[in-house]
Amino acid sequence: MLEETFPQVLAAAREGAEWAWVRLYRELAPPVLGYLRARGSAEPDDLAGEVFLQVVRDLRTFEGDARDFRAWVFTVAHHRLVDDARRRARRPADSVAEVMEPEPVTEDTVGQVDRALALERVRRLIGQLAPDQRDVLLLRVLGGLTVAEVAQVVGKSTGAVKALQRRGLLRVKQALAEEGVPL
Amino acid sequence: MSDGDAYEDEMAMLSRPSDRDLDGLIAGRAPDDGGDFDELASFVRELKQAFDSSPNTTTEARHLHAIAAAARLATHSAPLPAPTRPAPAKRRLWARPLVLAGALTLGLFCGVAYAGALPGPVQGAVADVAGNVGVSLPGAHNDKDDGAQNDKPAIVPERPQQERPTGPAQPSGTRGLGTPARQESGQQVGQKDVESGNQQAQQQQGQGGTENQRGDDGTNGNTGDQGSSGEQGSHGDDGGAHGGSTQSGGSQGGGQGGSGDHSRGDGNPGDGDN
Alpha-carbon distance B24 to B20, whole Å? Predict the structure, then answer.
């Protein structure tokens, strides 16, 4: 786990050691990329790359342990996501063109279709949430952040995050009951 | 109770799961005593499985390459100094006295130029420049000339002799016949004319003088009177009447000729004596 060796990895990353950055990237890129995808980013891979580049540039300003570093990286990702959404809102034509790009077809077509259907269902259920509820649930589930860390990321109090989490989960439960089809 | 758009059995659902239960649900575990949340816990697991995926090899290689380059750049480059605000503040600090001194100098220069106290060429140049923008300032030479004229108002500059009516055109006896009262009257008229305006008198001098020269027989007195202003002619007429001379026309001519500067000659006691 990263928590145990985080001080050494962080010091090496500050010195520019490539292995340290590979370690940090492989530890945090999957949840960050998943959060960006779940939030509906048009280009999650590029956005994830921008997030880590900003982390590299601003690493000298960071102080804390592995949990703090994780929350900090997700804070950067959240802000990047908000900025990207605003930028694309001003250019709706570009975002539509990018969303309609077809994904590459692989040999495992059946499995891919199943995953695509499941992903579509999850997206539809998440889409029924309020934006704040969705952010809280995704940061909690995909980011693995605590309530306090999520509160730090989204800039709300822990009580507000708890309320959003509760209402979000109950809203998903209600939507599942309305569908009548278990996942 | 809740409104129609609220969740069904909202209060019951809110009171049921505790924070601990919610933390378990976030981790994909249903509460021990709640079978109603199995579907929700399953959804959370599906959510995590659907989106928690590593980037593909190509994307990861591209990202790591960019990260390594950025890390080298961030390591070898010195920290960028924050934009310092003291620099412009200092610049403003030492610029303020300069601006103040410049404004003060400009104001002083304008004041001196308005007073006409600048050196001659400078004053003239400034007056020309100011005149181009519609501001009238005293010029370098005009002031001196004007001042000289004002200093000696009773002296007629560059008065040719032919303008004086004391030639053969007007007998000296005519004036000599004038009483002191006439002389005083002529003097008063002459002074009044001087005060009334030199320019008009100068323009009429030639005409009046000519008429005076021609009016030696007295018949042209009216002509001389016409050459001058009527008021001046009446003074001359009065003077002639006081003088009791039949050559009052000539006196008129003399009086008219002196309506400007010439009357000064008539009114001059010295002229009368002559």
Answer: 6
